[in-house]
Amino acid sequence: MYCPCCLNPRIVDYPNNQKASDFFCEKCKNDFQLKSSKKPFGKKVVDGEFNTMVSVIKKGDSPNFFILQYSLEDWRVKSLLMIPKFFVILSMLEKRNPLSINARRSGWTGCNFLLDKLPNEGKIPIIKDEKILEKKVINKTWRKMFFLANKKPELRGWTSDVLKIVQEQDKEFKLKDIYKYENYFRELHPTNNNIQAKIRQQLQILRDNKIIKFKERGIYEVLE
Ligand SMILES: [Zn+2]
What we know:
Elements: E1 12-13, E2 23-24, E3 31-37, E4 44-49, H1 50-59, E5 64-70, E6 77-83, E7 93-95, E8 110-114, E9 124-128, E10 131-132, H2 135-144, H3 153-166, E11 172-174, H4 175-179, H5 182-188, H6 195-208, E12 212-216, E13 219-222
Parallel strand pairs: 3-5
Antiparallel strand pairs: 1-2, 2-3, 4-8, 5-6, 6-9, 7-8, 9-10, 11-13, 12-13
Helix pairs in contact: 3-6
The protein binds zinc ion.
Zinc ion (ZN) binds at residues 3, 5-6, 8, 25, 27-28, 30.
């Protein structure tokens, strides 16, 4: 596997489970963790322990994730997508029920990744229906959103959440279209008291990074 972040032709595996991650790139030092399944993933991907993941996200320590689906019938990779590390955010984490009292690890609480909480750039297809997609396009998407890596984890989550909703609108959309999702954002960020101001701040960040542009007062357009 090549490195989607810098196009180094090969990533290597960590020796003897040294770290939480499975692979790393010797050139750009990115870490990758692999989740694989023979079943299609759908909207949810099962991850590890909930509180561990919360603290990893809050510290901004997450690796990139590879989500891979394979077939045991023909031994082929059916699909592979990457969640860039800066899109691993609290909004996409779902707490699962603790294991029952009879379980060996009673009380242990796992989590799911909710892929439908992420914008398109947060789940970059690398192999789709057994077809290998173009490396350069994948790397371009990574670089387009790399500005998020330099933001605090909390703020980065907001940018991703707003971008997700922006992508559900028409190419041209109004500020008030996004304000309609105030309750949605409040559920994701219950401690924030000024959701509308936060939305405006995030649209500004998306504009500064050429994801959208301001057309006129209260009207925006998504850039290609
Ligand atoms: Zn690399």
